[in-house]
Amino acid sequence: MNSKQNKKTKTLRAKGVTKMVFTGKNYMLLGVAILLLVLGFGGMYVENNFTGWFSLYISPVLAVAGFITVAFAILYRENNDTQQV
């Protein structure tokens, strides 16, 4: 960071302005994860049959994919820092 950017960052921090942790992409991924979880658990509830094909094979995969996507949405961070030499 050069001195001009450093001053700006310090000034914004002094005013109490900070960057948001989540970006729009994080919220989009979180929405997809919630949709996968709803489809997974909803499929298990709707079919409600122990030997049902959808509730036995597809719904658990959707639920696990939803949990993995939630973790990825929380941990995802865009790398906008460019190193200047």
Q: Quickly give the structural class.
A: mainly alpha
Are there runs of 5+ residues with pLDDT below 50, and where? none
**Number of E strands:** 0
- Terminal CA distance reads 10 Å
Level of helix content?
Answer: over 70%
- Gyration radius, rounded: 21 Å
Helix and strand element order: HHH
Q: How many distinct helices? A: 3
Biggest sheet overview: none
* Mean pLDDT level: 83
The best one-word shape is rod-shaped
Proportion of beta-strand residues: under 5%
Fold topology:
Layout: H1 3-15, H2 24-47, H3 53-75
Helix pairs in contact: 2-3
Describe this entry's structure for a reader.
The chain is 71% helix and 0% strand. α2 (24-47) packs antiparallel against α3. The protein is rod-shaped and about 65 Å long. The mean pLDDT is 83. By secondary structure, it is mainly α. The protein has a domain at 22-75.
Structure summary:
The chain is an all-alpha fold. It has helices spanning 3-15, 24-47, 53-75. 71% of the residues lie in helices and 0% in strands.
